[in-house]
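Chain A, query sequence.
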Amino acid sequence: MDTRRLFSFVRIVDAGSITRAADILHTAQPALSQQMTALESHFGQQLLIRSKQGVEPTAAGRALYRHAQVILRQVESAQAEVSVVGRELAGGVSVGLAPYSTVTAIALPLLTAVRERYPSILLHINENFGGVLSEAMMTGRMDMALLYDAGPIKGVTFERLLTEELMVVAPSGTGLPGRTGSVVSLLDLAEVPLLLPGRMHTIRKVVEIAFESVLAQPKIVGEVESVTLMAQAVRSGLGATILPLSVARRMMNVQGLELRRIEPSIEVQVSLGTPANQPLSKPAEAVREVLRTVLADYVSANSKPAV
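Chain A, predicted structure.
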């Protein structure tokens, strides 16, 4: 099969219009329409529904779209790898990072290290939810991701790299029972207004499971996905929050906050996920090694006790 037709098909679906896709691809519209007719003839299925509003993929078209993304990515990786045999590594590598975790702190060091060691590798970093990152790896649209390990996921292989303790961050001198610097129990936290990430986030799920284990429920008063906004909201007295130690420490740059341990302790696992059904390209393998080194260096430099 001519992969150019698959490339054109993906661009048409993304654009939602053959006319717009023709402009993007700098191709005549009739030629693009002929490619789609040939593609539908090849598969013996209608792939696109055409209307005055544009085009939409049929059920068969959506299936082809998913496979075409994987095929085109593999072709791109093969071309990049073959073209640099005997020369420096080159090509695109995509890395996903889970929000509200240690790994977001290594994004800049990772980008810097890859740029220094492999200047011909184009690194794409995407911060997103674990479910989104896992789906991207399963469909071949992402090479690897550092994310919270919520258990086995079909199509993704996990390598556990880091265990993080969750901590409470609250306005100084208010909101938390006990003296400043002391450990706070989960049962006591049940009475404290909490700001947490949304329900899709692994941290939220882990916190809720921890409260269930002591037959209590968290008093959630807001859902915040931004570390910067979370720090401002806690400082303003809207509530406390529960986050990984590394993230909590970064929030402590905002004055007026206190950091407390939780009893019983709550932990989350950070793992490196890679697609289970396809090997990494040589550039991706190189980036994976750099990522491991950068993360190890970060953990070593930030391994002091919390309180």
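The CA atoms of residues 157 and 276 lie 5 Å apart. The radius of gyration is 24 Å.
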